[in-house]
Automatic annotation (TrEMBL):
It catalyses: di-trans,octa-cis-undecaprenyl diphospho-N-acetyl-alpha-D-muramoyl-L-alanyl-D-glutamyl-meso-2,6-diaminopimeloyl-D-alanyl-D-alanine + UDP-N-acetyl-alpha-D-glucosamine = di-trans,octa-cis-undecaprenyl diphospho-[N-acetyl-alpha-D-glucosaminyl-(1->4)]-N-acetyl-alpha-D-muramoyl-L-alanyl-D-glutamyl-meso-2,6-diaminopimeloyl-D-alanyl-D-alanine + UDP + H(+). Residues 187-345 form the Glycosyl transferase family 28 C-terminal domain. One of its GO terms (biological process) is cell wall organization. It is a peripheral membrane protein. Belongs to the glycosyltransferase 28 family. MurG subfamily. CDD domains: GT28_MurG (cd03785). Cell wall formation. Catalyzes the transfer of a GlcNAc subunit on undecaprenyl-pyrophosphoryl-MurNAc-pentapeptide (lipid intermediate I) to form undecaprenyl-pyrophosphoryl-MurNAc-(pentapeptide)GlcNAc (lipid intermediate II). One of its GO terms (molecular function) is UDP-N-acetyl-D-glucosamine:N-acetylmuramoyl-L-alanyl-D-glutamyl-meso-2,6-diaminopimelyl-D-alanyl-D-alanine-diphosphoundecaprenol 4-beta-N-acetylglucosaminlytransferase activity. One of its GO terms (cellular component) is plasma membrane. This is UDP-N-acetylglucosamine--N-acetylmuramyl-(pentapeptide) pyrophosphoryl-undecaprenol N-acetylglucosamine transferase. It comes from Dorea longicatena. It is found in: Cell membrane.
Length: 355
């Protein structure tokens, strides 16, 4: 039996692609272990699958001044020692890393024990954690054609992001019943990210009177972002977060308005959902969502509006135009070369694994 260590954490986006690989890895009879931080989001997400979980110390490597810059290097050094010990004990045949700072000690520990490692980079340009890990990788998977030029020659493979297969098996009639929607109007799903985007939420709510004349709207608005004054509005359903019913909501949805996190937009691509992307502003991030969104726009998968462009008329026109041209977007997504991410990544894992 081959043994694989999966690693990645800090945000759900560094964990869900690993989760998407689990069924195929189990089919192939891999003994699967996960290394993450002691109490990060990855611990909660992974343990529900019954995968052995190993926590290590972790710290963030920042490019800006912070008091934690004086203490985190010691956490990283401790984490590297713990990772080396785990890799020695577990003796894996291969490591698959989804990134985040907890993955760096694991990848470096793998290199010290000559374990082949595959890294997955979600965003257009690699983050600092993956930049540190790249020299130790056998192969580097990526989501965007433009990313290949930022990666070491001979290591880069355009794979797309592994998508949880259950998202492809939704039942729109269950969603109609769950939402109390009718079948005579198309449905827009608004996804503001796990924390909820105030900019996206406010922009959509400002055009509700006009949108509800032609559409029904399911709004995933984030924790604490429910607008009580809109609770009884017909054709409008809002939730902080949806888990089990998400696949059914996707099956019902005609258009999606979303942030542009890499994993979220790769799910939209896999589901062939015409989408309007409103990326996180460069003022609030390193600008990776803007780059992600513009790549999808160039490839013909998405319409993009930046936060600074958002206003009542611009948003309404973008939604109307997208709906009118939805079949063009659907067809382009169906023709995408990034449709078999799980197969491509599993083939890479099999090709580099020891034994």
């Amino acid at each position: 039996m081959k043994r694989i260590i999966l690693t990645g954490g800090g945000t759900a986006g560094h964990v869900t692609p690993n989760i998407a690989l689990l069924p195929r890895l189990k089919e192939l009879n891999y003994d699967i272990h996960y290394i993450g931080s002691y109490n990060g989001i990855e611990k909660e997400l992974i343990e529900q699958f019954g995968i052995p979980y190993h926590g290590i110390s972790t710290g963030k490597l920042r490019r800006y001044f912070s008091v934690q810059n004086f203490t985190d290097p010691f956490r990283v050094i401790k984490g590297l020692g713990e990772a080396k010990k785990l890799v020695k004990i577990l003796h894996p045949d291969v490591i698959f890393s989804k990134g985040g700072f907890v993955s760096v000690p694991v990848v470096l520990a793998g290199k010290s024990r000559h374990v082949p490692t595959i890294i997955h980079e979600s965003d257009m340009t690699p983050g600092l954690a993956n930049k540190i890990s790249m020299p130790s990788a056998s192969k580097i998977c990526c989501n965007f054609p433009e990313t290949i030029e930022h990666l070491p020659a001979g290591k880069a493979v355009l794979t797309g992001s592994p998508i949880r297969q259950e998202l492809l098996s939704g039942d729109k009639y269950k969603a109609l019943e769950f939402l109390h929607f009718t079948q005579d109007k198309p449905v827009i799903m608004v996804v503001g990210g796990s924390l909820g985007s105030v900019a996206v939420n406010d922009a959509v709510r400002s055009v509700l009177p006009e949108l509800l004349q032609s559409f029904q709207i399911v709004h995933l608005c984030g924790k604490g972002k429910i607008d009580e004054s809109l609770k009884d509005l017909e054709g409008y359903a809002q939730f902080e977060y949806i888990k089990d019913e998400l696949k059914d909501l996707f099956a019902l949805t005609d258009l999606v308005i979303s942030r542009a996190g890499a994993n979220a937009i790769c799910e939209l691509l896999a589901l062939h959902k015409p989408n309007l992307l409103i990326p996180l502003s460069a003022n609030a991030s390193r600008g990776d969502q803007i780059l992600n969104a513009r790549s999808f726009e160039r490839q013909g998968y998405s319409v993009v509006l930046e936060e600074e462009e958002l206003n009542h008329d611009v948003l309404l026109k973008a939604i109307t135009d997208l709906y009118q041209n939805r079949e063009t977007y659907i067809q382009t997504m169906k023709n995408s070369p990034q449709q078999n991410s799980i197969d491509t990544i599993i083939d890479l894992i099999e090709s580099v694994a020891r034994h």
